[in-house]
Amino acid sequence: MTTLINQNPIIYEASAGHSTREWREEDDDENSADAIDAQEIFDLIRSISDPEHPLSLEQLNVTQRDHIQVSDENNSVLVEFTPTIPHCSMATLIGLCIRVRLLRCLPSRFKVDISVRKGTHQSEHAVNKQLNDKERVAAALENSHLLEVVNQCLATATSGGVVANIVKGPAIVN
Amino acid sequence: MDRLISTYILAQTDSQEQADAAIEDIVKATALLSTTLATLDQSKVNASAVTVLVEFYCDRLTDQACVPELLKGLLALSKFDKFTSVDCIKSVKAILALVNVQTYQQTARHYVFLFFESVIKRYSQTDLKAISSDFVFGFIQCLDGEKDPRNLMLAFTLIKNIIQEFDIAQHVEDLFEVTFCYFPITFRPPPDDPYGITSEHLKVGLRDCLAATPYFAKFALPLLLEKLSSSSGSAKKDSMETIAACAPVYGSSALTPYAEELWSGLQNEIFHATGDELEQVALNTLQVITTELSMGVSLGGSNDPVEKFLRPIISDCMTQLQKPEMKLAKPSGKILKACAMASDPACTAITLATIPTLLSQYTSSDQSTRKKALLDVLLDFLEASKVLYGSAGKPTEHDTDFVTPLLTFKDRFFELFTNALLSSNEYNALRLAGVKGLHGMILLREFLSETEISYAIQYFVRIILEDPDVELQETALSSLSSLALIMPGVVRSMALPSFFEMLPTSQNDMDVDTVVQKKSPEYILNAVTKIGAEPTLFADVVPQILEKLDLVANDFSSTHATYPIALLTTLLVLLRSKAAQGHSDLPQYLDNLVPRLIGLCIYPTVSLDDGDSVMKNSEILEVVAGITRVVMIHVDTRAQQEFVKAIFRFFVSEDLSTLAMIKDTAQHVTFTPLRHDSRVSQQNTCVLFSTVIDGCRQQTVLPVDNLQQFTGSLVDVAIKTSNVTQRTALSKAVATILNKYNKGGVMENFIGQTLIPELHNIIRQEQAAFETREAALIMYTWITKAMVLSTSTIGYDMTGELMSIFSVPRLGKIAADGFNLVIGEQRDVLTKESFAVLRLLYKQRFFNHCVPVLVKGFESSADEVRHNFLIALSHVLRNIPKQVLLTELPPLLPMLVHSLSFPDPELKASTIETFQIITKDAPDLMAEHLSTLTPLLISLTSAKDPANTMKVRSAALKCLGAQPKSLPFTALRPYKAQVLKELEKCLDDCKRVVRREAVECRSQWFTLNGSIASA
């Protein structure tokens, strides 16, 4: 059995895979535009699996909605993530997964910055540099083994982001 | 027969003289004889013939070429009644001595095993016992080296039988070796295996052998432990399941020496589980072992085998639980739970060893996540206790002498969970654990006192009514709802009154200021629907709701209908869930509840001033209709008959004298709901009238003199009235009558000669008012539906007529949409449960009848009419069972593709949905049309065209996204780059729902071959 970097991580409550976003009236309106916001980005990345454990990034508290900043008008996104332990060698891989997920899911007009949250990793600077260097990211994805690992982590990613049902009154169920 | 044998023997002697030249002939002759024996009526063969034959066959076994056929013959003989025990011994000895089984082909070996099976069944008790040792030994020899799964399946049953029937003491080790060598089974059946033997069959067969005797214990356990550390998941699982199966047979004394190793092997599977399934198997195995060890004879105090086994387990788990918020704490809890569930001694030992520590850990910890994790472990203990010592409210199959050791800690538990639950500023998950804990304690048999249960239920109520957190509310509510079934008494006295107290009783109560602190009445009523279905509780709910309704019926205006609607909906939801659970108390509500509600609806419509009243609200009428329906369809014909009479007195005879409320009112206008010129509020109550007709059983007679005349008058009113509600209600009533009371076609003349010409006339009258023509068309459509459901030929004629209306301006579209009504299922009218006549396969028949006509019509019509044909077709396709759809689809595809270019969003979306079904269920068909469809679907995802509403865009993306999962890679590859590229635009769609579909769709295409394209 291979030894894990972090054998026994802390597990946090995740909101059962569905978005905490509530339904609004304008969601049904053809003409009202819904801006891309932090919740939407969070829903895109929360269910990515950790490379080491069969747990989501949300469950490991690696990603949090409050650590995402979005400006739809300025086309910018900043995602900060928190490795489970400061010497986590998986940090770059996790960052890469987030990077690829957002590359695939966000309009290309966005400039996406991904970084380790300040003070949560030993080699914070190096990791950040790698993650935001376009060429290094592209090179990493040329590596078919690495790509497969990334795709595996992303396989669970789509379970997030469904609008939660809210009960208003006694609902008739047939 | 005799002649055949003698001929054969003769031929035999002859041929032997002619040397070996005729070996083939001998084999053939043997085969002939054996086949004859296998198919022969055995009464034709006398005892001496059997003996001669057995002797002959046994002697011949030396002739290797004939052995397979000889074995077949012996097998046949062994089934004969006259096959004696002497014959049996003789043939068994001969086979064991003369046949080297494993040198023959599979069929021959199969005969040997079948022969053994046959003789063991008949003679094991008596005669074979005498040669027991030889037989077992010989059998082992026969089996040694066997590889064929068919033979093994048979052999495994034989081994089990032999172990049970014979004395194997001399040969335990040999028998074990020849059995265990197959473990773990790695067999994988070939594709399209005709024998249907799976590796699971073999595993279970082998497992039964290994678990057949305690003699195997000392050989099996070390080997099974060894396999447990294997790297293959399936071998591990098999080992664990086998250990679990063997443990009860091998017994405590055999297990004890391996206790430590078992734990160290199993803990790996739990702490570092690779999957939920393996973990569960490991836990289960652990539990079985613990149970078994608990039955071991105690050698006094601490040497008790189960205590010895549990000691390292407890200590390992407690080490992990020192850091309860970490990942390994949860499995530790599960392990303790599994062991505690095993037996009373185990549970007591574990409880006493762990709970005090856990409790003090809890007290000394100030970290919420840690506290929560500790409570989770306590929850595991509650669950274990429930399984082992029985749950409240259920007739117990458990030994009532034992009480759970948790009883010692009851007060502490209650305090901890209560505090966790009530600390309102705490971490939510901790409070949730509190709710679950109290719930778990209530569920334990003879655990909490009644006072404590009352307290706990009050806490739940408080959470539901006062707490702002949704998840907590839901958990508390679902606890309460499950308790309502087990202990309705407490819920009735402790919970229900608090809910009803919170409900407003007047318009003033609804004012924002007072509501702001409290939960909305809708919320509270929703909670009531979750707990009130149990009969005694429901009996309490009904008067409470009626009381509130009485108060608001006078006080509220029709614009403030939300609250009364919620009150009535509560009743409806509860009645429906009662119906679904098969409660028997439904009929009684037809006597009091339903007439009372109908009265409440009628009353304001006959007041002198026809003033504003909430009970006139159309949604209220719908809900009351729903209540009427669900109760009505659950009563018998006699009760229905009474009820229908009363309702017809109100609606048809226009006589309200029997309505309780009216009696007290001196002045009121007459009630004339079935007229086209009466008060609108009265006309609207026709909804109730048509529901009552819909709820009638076919045997219930409508109290009118002439049903056809009555129906005709309803049709008349429906066409003359300008009130849409009344018109729809009456159309439904007419359709129901014509469908239900048309036994033997008694109505068909009336329909064909009176109704159809009349309606037809109005529809075609170009100078008549459009509204009248529309009304006639709608009535026509409803009648068509009634006839199509009962597959009457009139229905198909009428369908054809509907299609001819497609070309009539303005009416054409309505007629096309009418197809949805005709073939679509209605929730509230003409359904199976409301006793409508629905013939078998009516949808298929309708489909087969009208699709060709629709296609032909489409081809021969002008462009502006074609649209209507497509709409009608899409309604038909949407409502047709999938199997029919898929077989009939290919010729329709061009038409469907065509309909994607019409600017009608509804039509587009519905067609795309059809394509999605095709993608999933007929991928080959879809693959053929990719070159046309893919560009079309892509263009439909563009928001630039206003006809591509978000529904269309989402549907198109969903359809594209379904392709990678269903269609072959080779078919899709040419489109991959294009799809990914084009859909990039959808990532920036202005609607979030569309973006979500785009993301989902693209990620499906990205992983199409595991490589990344344009990213």
From TrEMBL, chain A:
Cellular component per GO, a single term: intracellular protein-containing complex
Protein's UniProt keywords contain Mitochondrion: no
Entry-linked Gene3D superfamilies: 6.10.250.1280, Fe-S cluster assembly (FSCA)
Domain MIP18 family-like residues, every copy: 39-115
GO biological process: chromosome segregation; protein maturation
InterPro entries: FSCA_dom_sf, MIP18, MIP18-like
Entry keyword Hydrolase: no
Keywords in alphabetical order: Chromosome partition
Signal peptide: none
Superkingdom per UniProt: Eukaryota
Family: Belongs to the MIP18 family.
Protein name (Swiss-Prot/TrEMBL): Mitotic spindle-associated MMXD complex subunit MIP18
TrEMBL record, chain B:
UniProt xrefs under InterPro entries: ARM-like, ARM-type_fold, MMS19, MMS19_C, MMS19_N
Localization per Swiss-Prot or TrEMBL: Nucleus
Keywords assigned: DNA damage, DNA repair, Nucleus, Repeat
Principal subcellular localization: nucleus
UniProt domain MMS19 C-terminal: residue ranges: 524-962
A matching Pfam family: MMS19_N
Single biological process term from Gene Ontology: protein maturation
Domain MMS19 N-terminal as annotated: residue spans: 28-272
Database matches in Gene3D superfamilies: Leucine-rich Repeat Variant
GO cellular component annotations of the record: cytosolic [4Fe-4S] assembly targeting complex; nucleus
Function summary: Key component of the cytosolic iron-sulfur protein assembly (CIA) complex, a multiprotein complex that mediates the incorporation of iron-sulfur cluster into apoproteins specifically involved in DNA metabolism and genomic integrity. In the CIA complex, MMS19 acts as an adapter between early-acting CIA components and a subset of cellular target iron-sulfur proteins.
Family recorded in the similarity comment: Belongs to the MET18/MMS19 family.
Protein name per the record: MMS19 nucleotide excision repair protein
